[in-house]
Amino acid sequence: MVDSVNSSTSGISATSSLTASSTDIGATQDRFLKLLVTQMKNQDPLNPMDNAQVTSQMAQLSTVTGIDKLNSTVQALSSSMLASQSLQAVSMIGHVALTDGDGMDLANGNAYGGVELAQPADKVTVQITNAAGAMVRTLHLGAQESGVVDFSWDGMTDAGSTAADGKYTFTAVSELSGKKGDVTTLSYGLVNSVAQSSSGVTVNIGDQGEVGLHTIRKIL
């Protein structure tokens, strides 16, 4: 009988680990204590249980319980944050947002875009191309500080003609003391809808499609 109880108690750690994912941690603690008490009642007086072993087993159970409680807390915080992000994103619907992208729409002689500079620049150059891939205009934005820089295009080409309304793309280059810096191109688009996915809250913006909230630099 003693051997049977010893065998049962030796598996307590494994049993606790297996049941840690369940919500009934209280039942697991009760089973552990019953097995421990039973083992102590039936132990061999000439070969009593090792106190260190008992302490180790109880510490393992406490650790499992603590991890389960921590997981529950983290899940609750995650759900609360997701709800807050969803509410924030819904308020963006119908507004224009600036996010990662290299596209711009020319309409009535006006088009807008942006760049994000990782460091200050002595000069920033933007090159705009049409749907056929031909460059139509080069914009010189001059010296800029690090961060988000907006720019506009009046639709005039380098040749002095007026570009047709439609979709265009652009690239950007920054230089500081003759060395090129990191530049992220940014596009403006209308926020159409909001959705939740396994990766979090996403926003549908114009031609950019579904983007994460972290990519949005500005809301107008």
Largest sheet: 7 strands, antiparallel
Q: How would you describe the shape?
A: elongated
Order of helices and strands: HHHHEEEEEEEEEEEE
| CATH hierarchy: architecture of the largest domain | Sandwich
Radius of gyration: 32 Å
* Percent helix: 25-40%
Helix/strand-derived category reads alpha+beta
Report the portion of residues in β strands. Answer: 35-45%
Number of strands: 12
Overall number of structural domains? 2
What CATH calls the topology of the largest domain is: Immunoglobulin-like
Q: Which spans have pLDDT < 50 for at least 5 consecutive residues?
A: 1-23
Instruction: Quote the distance from N terminus to C terminus.
Output: 76 Å
Q: Count every helix, treating DSSP H or I runs of 4 or more residues as helices.
A: 4
Provide the CATH top-level class of the largest domain.
Answer: Mainly Beta
